[in-house]
């Protein structure tokens, strides 16, 4: 089967002296593994479309579980990420998180648009990386089937006095129920951070990064979003460790 689709390189693995196996996140097809033969050669015709962050239109011959890239046309490279080590580290984490959030060969176009929009925001707008990271984490989890309960206590159903977020239970806890949960998965939240979370999971995509919050509320949001991602996806990300080592 031959396909043509736009997509972004979210992982690359060197093979031999000249080739790579790419993990592509393709519109209409989801996560796809594909050979990029000769892509490590300076003169290779696939060199320009075979690097991390490259968004391109690909021609692929699909064979069982792996495809062979036969051509490509660059749309965007997000080159400016490479001029800022913090943004580059965060960008790599966004790619890894996206890869962990989608299944092989399952179309997830809304998540793909989220990833591309977030990389654009990270590259072109002067927003705190911590803010961009937290918004992306919570939004991608919501789109992946991990929509948190943000309007009532996940334990008793109470709608007021919500002061903690339980990453295991996947939602807010009231003051009466918070003492029953293991402390390492519980984070304090204020009215400001709760409002931010509600906005992130429900707003229109084009408005996702169009809000502000106090430094204290941002710190809470960042802790909740990262902890929630770690618990729900049941993994630790190497790229996240590097990001934290430089911020």
From TrEMBL:
InterPro entries: ARFGAP/RecO, DNA_rep/recomb_RecO_N, NA-bd_OB-fold, RecO, RecO_C
Gene transcribed to yield this protein: recO
Annotated source species: Feifania hominis
HAMAP family for the chain: RecO
Keywords: DNA damage, DNA recombination, DNA repair
Protein family membership: Belongs to the RecO family.
Ranges where the DNA replication/recombination mediator RecO N-terminal domain occurs: 1-78
UniProt name for this protein: DNA repair protein RecO
Keyword DNA repair: yes
Record PANTHER family: DNA REPAIR PROTEIN RECO (PTHR33991)
Function: Involved in DNA repair and RecF pathway recombination.
Record GO cellular component, one term: bacterial nucleoid
SUPFAM superfamilies (alphabetical): ArfGap/RecO-like zinc finger, Nucleic acid-binding proteins
Gene3D superfamilies: Nucleic acid-binding proteins, Recombination protein O, C-terminal domain, Recombination protein O, zinc-binding domain
